[in-house]
Amino acid sequence: MSHRPFDIRTWNDNPWSTVAERWMLITAGNAASWNTMTASWGGFGHLWNKDVVFIFVRPTRYTFGFMEASASFSLCFFGGEQREALEICGRVSGRDSDKAALTGLEPTTFTYPPSAPLPGKTAGEDCVVGFAQAKIVLACRKLHAQDLDPACFVDPAIANHYKAMDWHRFYVASIEAAWKQD
């Protein structure tokens, strides 16, 4: 399976069903050491004159450490034939298991042209780990990270999603490159 670059603004999937119903894999790390997790919370938008994604990762997730250590990550979107693989990636921890072996997903490095460096970083060729079976792969560069603060919940019912008080970290990232499966 091969992928070709495409203009993210030509992607016309419904963002609500794409994320909430079909889910996505968030993958951070590099070809030698990475982890992925299934997510159904997040979205797309335009912020700070950039096309962006926003995602949420709980600090209790194994992927969290990879997110914190990485400047970039991928979001992978699949067809229905990968639903079981996404269920496994959401249920099984990468601390204890090899998710690629369990699911048959094939990790692939996606390289994109260097972007302008963030302060304190150097420019260079950038890459993210995605999956050969993904219909869409987005390379995302972190711009902002912030822990959700329950004191700021306007609707107190939101706290019901956090019985263990493991508030998500909220990430905003620019979409640096996008690939579509041929």
Describe this structure in words.
It is a single chain. The radius of gyration is 16 Å and the shape is globular. With 182 residues, it is an alpha+beta fold. The longest helix is centred in the middle third of the chain and has 9 residues, at 83-91. 29% of the residues are buried. The protein has helices at 15-21, 62-69, 83-91, 99-103; strands at residues 3-5, 24-30, 33-39, 42-47, 50-57, 72-77, 107-112, 126-131, 136-147, 169-181. The strands form two sheets. Strands 1, 2, 3, 4, 5, 6, 9 and 10 form an eight-stranded antiparallel beta sheet that branches. A two-stranded antiparallel ribbon has the order 7-8.
Which secondary structure elements does this structure contain, and how are they paired or packed?
Blueprint: E1 3-5, H1 15-21, E2 24-30, E3 33-39, E4 42-47, E5 50-57, H2 62-69, E6 72-77, H3 83-91, H4 99-103, E7 107-112, E8 126-131, E9 136-147, E10 169-181
Give me a quick take on this structure.
The chain has 182 residues and is α+β, with helices and mostly antiparallel strands. It is built from four helices and ten strands, in the order βαββββαβααββββ. Strands 1, 2, 3, 4, 5, 6, 9 and 10 form an eight-stranded antiparallel beta sheet that branches. Strands 7-8 form a two-stranded antiparallel sheet.
